[in-house]
Every structure is written in C-alpha cells, then in structure tokens.
Design a protein that fits this description.
The chain has 221 residues and is an alpha/beta fold. 29% of the residues lie in helices and 26% in strands. It has one domain: Vaccinia Virus protein VP39 (Rossmann fold). The chain has helices at residues 10-27, 42-47, 56-69, 87-95, 144-154, 188-192, and strands at 31-32, 78-81, 102-106, 108-109, 115-116, 129-135, 155-166, 196-206, 209-220. It is globular and about 45 Å long. The protein starts with 9 loop residues before the first helix and ends with a strand.
Length: 221
C-alpha cells in the first residue's frame, strides 16, 4: 500500500493538518490575497484562521465526491478552490493525485501548498486543469458569472468541475432548476448551462448538518 493512501483516513489527515496549521501560523503567519475584487465576506473568512476549527466532515464529503467522479490518471492536474486548510489537499493526495499536480487557491493562506489569490482572476494559464473542486467556495463570490467564466477558462476541454454549496436557509429544493446558492438569488442552472453540462448531482441533508446542500459534477462544454 502506498504511504499516501493513509491520508484517506480522516483522523490521520486531520491530525497532520492541525499540527502543520499551528506550526506555519507561528513561523510563517497568514498571507492575504492582494486582489479582493468580487470577493465578499473576506473578514469573515479571515476570522477562521484565529484557531484551527475542524471542517473534517466537509473534507470527507469532498474527497468522496472526487473519488467517485474523478477520471484520474498519473498526469491529472487538479485545482482546489478555497480549501482553507491543507486537510482537503491531503485527501486528494490520498486518492492518488501527485502533489506536484495539485494547485490550491484561497483568499488567505498560511501554507506553501495554498496560493493566496482571487478565484475571479486566477494566476494560471488557460486550459490547465483536468479537475477543479470548489467546495463551499462560490458563496463568497460577489459575481457568480465572473467566477464561473474564470473557472471555465482554466479548465481543460471536457474537464470536470465539482462544486458543493449550502442552499438558501429554510428552503428545500427537489430539482436543479430551483437551486440557488445561499446569499445569491440567481438560478444556478441558468448560470452554468452556457458553459457546462451537468453529469451528476446531489441535493439533501448530510449527517453533520441540518442545512440543505447541493453538490454537482459538471463538465466543460
């Protein structure tokens, strides 16, 4: 068994991620993205780095989603948007992605594995990535269309975007045509269909929260 497979064990990757967080926050500190255009709630995001608050269940969900969806080969290139901590990255290494083929981008970063930057203006060339994961990230965008256009630009032809988000509180949805991301009013389907086609989707509650969530695997047109 490859040693990296141990990172699929939630408890192991959580302990490593926690230890590295406190080490790098002490000796490196937090680096902010210089460009905050179209980014909202950034002070709220920054507050999450005052201490390590586990997002283990979310990471478990995203790693499972990618494991079921991925067309992984040894050269597959992955972009992780808004991972917050390294635990999500470690999970994807456990799935078999090479560390050198994983890029991660977030508004704030304490880790050299995560580039501080803006998902609306990413520091990557066009058609670079085979797979992009945006877990609970797009709610922090003030322009979903700008974010999706930029994701579309850096994703390879027929590449896959996995996006997961909370639905508007207090409302349940049964079909994708009804889905709206929390803190946004626009129909998600109307935004993605010009650029992507839906492959798989999930709407419902999870074991760790009573909030309705939606998770989509969509392919670049």
């Amino acid at each position: 068994m490859r040693v990296e497979r141990l990172l699929l064990v939630p408890g192991i990757r959580e302990k490593i991620s926690r230890a590295r967080f406190y080490y790098f926050m002490r000796f490196r500190g937090l680096v902010d993205a210089r460009d905050l255009s179209f980014v909202k709630r950034h002070e709220y995001s920054r507050s999450h780095f005052s201490t390590y608050s586990s997002i283990r269940e979310r990471v478990d969900f995203l790693v499972s989603m990618l494991g079921m969806t991925s067309r992984l080969n040894e050269d597959s290139k992955l972009l992780v948007l808004g991972p917050r901590y390294e635990s999500e990255i470690f999970g994807y290494i456990g799935l078999g992605f090479k560390k050198k083929n994983i890029q991660a981008l977030d508004t704030f970063s304490y880790s050299k594995l995560i580039t501080p930057g803006n998902l609306h203006n990413m520091p990557y060339g066009s058609e670079i990535f085979d797979i992009i994961v945006a877990g609970w990230t797009l709610a922090y965008s003030d322009s979903l269309e700008a974010a999706l256009l930029e994701i579309h630009r850096v994703l390879k032809s027929n590449g896959i975007l996995i996006m997961t988000f909370d639905l508007r509180e207090g409302e349940g949805f049964n079909t994708l045509s009804e889905v709206e991301i929390a803190n946004h009013d626009a129909s998600l389907l109307s935004l993605i269909t010009p650029y992507f086609k839906v492959k798989n989707w999930f709407i419902g509650k999870t074991s760790w929260t009573q909030q309705n969530i939606c998770s989509l695997a969509i392919e670049k047109n």
